[in-house]
Amino acid sequence: MTAAAIAADVRAGRRTAESIVEDALGLVAARDGDVHAFLHVDTEGAIAAARAVDARVARGEEPGPLAGVPLALKDNLCTRGIPTTCGSRILEGWRPPYTATAVERLLACGAVPLGKTNLDEFAMGSSTENSAFGPTRNPRNPARVPGGSSGGSAAAVAAGFAPIALGTDTGGSIRQPAALCGVVGVKPTYGAVSRYGLIAFASSLDQIGPFATNVADAAAVLEAMAGPDPRDSTSWPEPFAPLDVRADVSGLRVGVVRELMGEGIAADVAARAAEAADALSAAGAKVDEVSVPGARYALSAYYLIAPAEASSNLARYDGVRYGLRVERDDITTTYGATRAAGFGAEVKRRIMLGTYALSAGYYDAYYGQAQRARTLLIRDFAAAYERFDVLLTPTTPTTAFELGARTADPLSMYLSDVCTVPSNLAGHPAMTVPFGTGADGLPIGVQVLAPALGERVMFRVAATLEEVAPR
Amino acid sequence: MSDWETVIGLEVHCELRTETKLFCGCRNAFGDEPNTNICPTCLGLPGSLPVLNRAAVEFAMRIGTALHCEVRPSIFHRKNYFYPDMPKDYQISQYDEPLNVNGWLELPDGTRVGIERAHLEEDTGKTTHVGTSGRIHGADFSLVDYNRAGVPLVEIVSRPDIRSADQAKSYVAELRGILVATGASDGKMEEGSLRVDANVSVHRAGEPFGTRAEIKNLNSLRSLGRAIDYETRRQVALLEDGGTVVQETRHWNEDEGRTSSLRTKEEAYDYRYFPEPDLVPLDPPVAWKDNVRASLPVLPAERRHRLAELVGMAPADVSLLVELDLDRLVGDAISVGADPRIAVNRAANEVAAAPERAAALDPTAFAALTRMEADGRLTATQAKAVLAEVIASGGDPQAIADAHGYAPADSGLVEAAVDTAIADDEAAWARYVGGEDKVAGLFVGKVMKATGGKADGKAVTALLQSKRAAATGQAH
Amino acid sequence: MAVPISRDDVAHVARLARLDVTDEELDRFTAQLAAVLEYASDVASLDTAGVPPTAHPLELLNVLREDVPVASLDRDEVLAAAPAVVDGRFRVPKILGEAP
Lengths: 471, 476, 100
Description:
The complex is a heterotrimer.
Chain A: H1 3-12, H2 17-35, E1 38-41, H3 43-59, E2 70-74, H4 101-108, E3 112-117, H5 151-158, E4 164-169, H6 175-181, E5 184-187, E6 207-212, H7 215-225, E7 253-257, H8 267-282, E8 286-290, H9 298-313, H10 331-342, H11 345-358, H12 364-387, E9 390-394, H13 410-414, H14 421-426, E10 430-437, E11 443-449, H15 455-468
Parallel strand pairs in A: 2-3, 2-4, 7-8, 7-9
Antiparallel strand pairs in A: 1-3, 4-6, 5-6, 5-10, 9-11, 10-11
Chain B: E1 4-15, H1 40-43, E2 52-53, H2 54-66, E3 70-71, E4 77-80, E5 90-93, E6 100-106, E7 112-122, E8 126-131, E9 139-145, E10 152-158, H3 165-182, E11 194-204, E12 213-218, H4 221-240, E13 249-253, E14 258-261, E15 274-275, H5 286-295, H6 300-311, H7 319-323, H8 327-335, H9 340-353, H10 355-358, H11 363-374, H12 380-393, H13 397-404, H14 411-424, H15 426-433, H16 440-450, H17 457-472
Parallel strand pairs in B: 12-13
Antiparallel strand pairs in B: 1-10, 1-11, 3-6, 4-5, 4-15, 6-7, 7-10, 8-9, 11-12, 13-14
Helix pairs in contact in B: 3-4, 6-8, 8-9, 8-11, 9-11, 11-12, 14-16, 16-17
Chain C: H1 7-16, H2 23-39, H3 41-44, E1 64-65, H4 75-80, E2 85-86, E3 89-93
Antiparallel strand pairs in C: 2-3
């Protein structure tokens, strides 16, 4: 069932939230052993939340637009009193004393959180294989990765455990797993959703966003949590404009990004993207090719900027105030031993890469240069958006790869993000819509990109793609 | 030794008197139970974010404006390093785009010291070392309290324009006066709300500046002076011995009276500064800057200049009065006719001795009293006595003088008393005539006794001098 | 410009980042990081003369908060999550030097 349908039933009293959440929990118990979407299922909390929704309905009080809808939450979002690990040993067992703003807002809308989902450690990865607690399997094919870093949330929705989930996207970590699992995933404009309570990976890139089985549900979740937050200095200060999910693209100008359609993109994926472009054209959009030269070096800039910010954001995991401590004779050796034991290899690589990119003598050549390249990319996008309303690309270069296929070579894993990182660098919204399958029968996603605060037009294009997508 | 010059630059950290911390709403309070003023942000919990305190910016702008700085657009940077009192293992500070730059302050003696910058940053938590000595070396473990973590600081960096320990102390005293006047600080070095680090180097006159050492743990003006003197001697001795001064941080040991090296294995530490992505730039609108400028009180240097002009003295000579907040009293008294010279003198001595009563002292009464003394209607001694009473319990100076029967002695009586005193002690008179000026005091004392304290000491001394001149046939 | 990162460089940044690494890890990480930096060298060769860096994708200024106290966290809840506590304070093993 869609979130909209569930909420309608609960609000009308046709079903209780408790019965819905019990079904969901039952399904998780029966099937998640195979998928491993969840790291922690909060049975008690979910039932209590559901009962609270039912009580409001019974009292005639407004239960919220997402009343009774089961929700899965990526485990890098703080949830008070509930273990929040970021997929890392260094935070194993840590229970935050506060809840992220975005989560609070969804709870206030009546959503019922089932638990916390698996992720690549500290959101660093594209397959969820970097989790310290074991990988998640793609519900469409258990030998394949679900993508990452929000693999658990994508899988939870794809497996039908919850109709909606929250993930986070720094370089594609919502969109890429959504595409590989065959669901809708949205990265909002940077600043549209508060980052307060989102455990930081790369502060100038991170955003929270929704997973859903359909575009309308994704829009509802985004509307419910977006908007200014005085606790986040980088949150956009204007109210988030209501979204429009009419499948109407007549007159809209759609630009297909040349740099992301050729080399590096698998043939079956590129074909689906081309099909999507044709479908939009048939639906009344004006479709043409566009060049965004900056897209070519966006991945490189990303792999200098993101690790640099991460190296600083992850310094706080030092065994002093919370989390794992491997105690030694003095504080310095305690730091070293704690972080060595607590972090996995990918996190260590990125911390060292980031530290290097910021270090004396290298700052200007690496971090400084990458931030200037970022400006050039933003200018390229601005030029493109003078002629087009939205842009179109494949979401990922390939369909879901096999578990273990790319773990030996970090660089090969990083290439999964080539279509998604440009939007993070620019701070622009982007979303993925399932659009057919590949040669191997696995899902393919098509990505719609829009300028900053352009969610309204982005969702209209996505709704159209959803309507015309091959089954 | 005499061809060596000392060069000193001072870094002063000033805790701001805001209600809450720099980036969160926790209370900015001294002395609360450990770890009771903490939240996700100042504790550095995962997922927390900073939000800038408007009042802290206001205070920082007041400080910058008071120090004649350019108040400019600025951003925050992260200064990355690991230490247990650092909740995030980076400090949010300002690096190469700070809020205030290129200012100066004027010392009481008129010297100007340049201010390179005054920027905002967050304070760290407090560590207590537990072990045999309570010092870091030899500790078994340490305890951390994060109440102070995130408290707003303004760091004020002087140019290396200071040339002596005394000048350094004068700079800190003047800066403290300015900071208190802006309302930004309570100025309490003893409580740690004002912390001073000194950069000291020496060089031979005419040669370039030498390598500097940074000295920490200076908890009072006295320590500052002693440490600079010690460090100067240490560096000179080292250089004269053929050694080199190492650029390092040194710890001042108050008990032992010396600095010792804190040098760890890493020399110039790599802080990997980069712009703070969780904060947006600060660009105070012109209206805000104008408002700050307009709302500052008259600062100490200006108060010195105004009083100096009023009384016809040098600013350095009236600095004590400004420091004691007595310039207003003197200014008000002069505006109702006080004798300037006497007013300054009495304020700096008698009134200053009872500073807590100064606020209640009526400027009109004070002015009247100075005129009585200036006109010769009261001797200096009598005037002081009346003033003491006015300070203690108010009242009209003339009435008090009358009640005591204060009036200058009849001049004929005074002269007669002088002649008697001379006749009574011819040996002493001979010594005085012979040039021993000190003997005058003996005669003045006798005359005061004989006239019941009503003689004017200065007039008696003048009389003695003219008698001596007459006796020796010399003009004075 | 692109000097491949050396084993000493990796050891140095590992120390800066307070990460103990084994010799085997040093070898492996050096090769992997060098490959990433090599890949990222296309950014290095971009002509960015006169181009300002983007620290924030948004163009916001002057986001400020009023100086009004907000309830702090409950100390017990916070200390319950701490690895070691003595007398309401976080206990850490001995610190060998002053802050850098």
